[in-house]
Write a structure and sequence with these properties.
The chain is an alpha/beta fold and 357 residues long. The chain is 40% helix and 17% strand.
Length: 357
């Protein structure tokens, strides 16, 4: 079996991290694995041992019209590369719905085409419709990251649920540095530098709670951060960090982790940072819809609150951070829940999906 894994933009966001875990599991089981992704930028998909790396052109740009043009240009380039490489017995594994060129060529070459679907929130709507039509036409089967996503994006194709899990190294690190005694009250959020990810609400919460320290880690450069907040007067208890390769120090010192995605603009289909937080025994506050509700139980290991309700979020932060009994109970429940998402399950299930004819 040869597996050709396809991803669009190699960076340090959630979907390439999941694909990295898949690639490591496949090569560990002696499956010949090829990766096609964008070159020129470092990310989770860079320099993975035993994987044969191939690159095609793509560049992310803020201008929406140019970005759309770049997407279609990149997929034409990708399709031309795959056309002369793929064989009928190959498996084409398309990570997210964006690299549609791989789905088209995989279908035309008679390959087994698997789409790993991470998202439901996508704009413009016409692009989403186009991409999911390609999925319906080309996919042999699909993989969803949660039951919620499978219900949101039902397709008349064989489906699989493959929950995101924590890497074994991440779990080991979290166990080594598990710290239940928090001296400082630190509220952490790790996300993209986008308004729909709740960045502005996080700033508001920092303003409302001057006694707590708020740390925001964004998948962006320092220049991009300065540009985004150039019109803002930021509170002194808010600390901003650009893209981080190693997030362990942030989880080690944090007390609570937030996910403040705007449910009208972006519904979280799983929430890997929430699972990472729970491995460190951290209570979380997340939106009341999406895949995150399969991780967080109201009042047990966190709270389910709409990000626009900053007053209620602020109340719950104060409750968690100033009541040690509640905090330690929620911390224990968070850690316990994280242990149900193990790498062995992920590896075995992903290989079963590859071999499922």
């Amino acid at each position: 079996m040869r597996v050709f894994a396809i991803h669009l933009l190699n960076d340090y966001s959630g979907s390439p991290k999941v694909l990295m875990q898949l690639l490591k599991g496949w090569t560990k089981n002696n499956i010949e694995t090829h990766l096609f992704t964008s070159g020129g930028k470092e990310g989770f998909l860079s320099d993975i041992p035993k994987v044969q790396h191939h690159f095609y052109w793509y560049r992310f740009i803020e201008n929406k019209f140019l970005r759309l043009l770049f997407l279609f240009a990149s997929q034409f380039i990708l399709a031309m590369q795959l056309l002369f490489i793929l064989k009928k017995d190959d498996v084409v594994y398309v990570n997210t719905v964006l690299p549609f060129g791989a789905g088209i060529i995989g279908k035309l070459r008679g390959c087994k085409v698997i789409y790993h679907i991470h998202e439901t929130s996508m704009k413009p709507k016409i692009l989403k419709q186009f991409l999911f039509r390609i999925v319906k036409w080309s996919a042999t089967e699909v993989v969803y990251v949660s039951n919620f996503l499978a219900a949101q994006e039902p397709l008349n194709i064989r489906k699989n649920i493959l929950y995101n899990v924590l890497e074994e190294n991440f779990v080991k690190q979290s166990q080594l540095h598990l710290n239940t005694k928090k001296n400082a009250k630190i509220v952490l959020m790790i996300c993209s530098l986008k308004a729909y990810k709740g960045v502005n609400e996080f700033v508001k919460l920092a303003q409302m709670n001057p006694k707590f320290t708020f740390k925001l880690v964004v998948n962006a450069s320092q220049i991009e951060i300065e540009t985004y907040f150039k019109e803002e007067i930021l509170p002194s208890n808010l600390i901003l960090f650009p893209t981080q390769k190693n997030t362990h120090p942030f989880y080690q010192e944090a007390s609570v982790v937030l996910n403040l995605s705007d449910t009208k603009l972006w519904v979280e289909t799983f929430g890997l940072t929430v699972l990472e937080a729970m491995a460190y025994g951290l209570p979380t506050i997340v939106p009341p819809v999406g895949g995150v509700i399969e991780l967080v139980e109201e009042g047990k290991n966190g709270f389910l609150i709409d990000s626009k309700n900053v007053n209620l979020i602020s109340e719950k932060l104060i409750l968690i951070l100033q009541n040690e009994t509640i905090y330690h109970k929620m911390s224990e429940d968070a850690l316990k829940k994280s242990k149900t998402f193990g790498e062995d399950y992920f590896e075995n299930e992903s290989i079963r999906i590859l071999s499922n004819y």
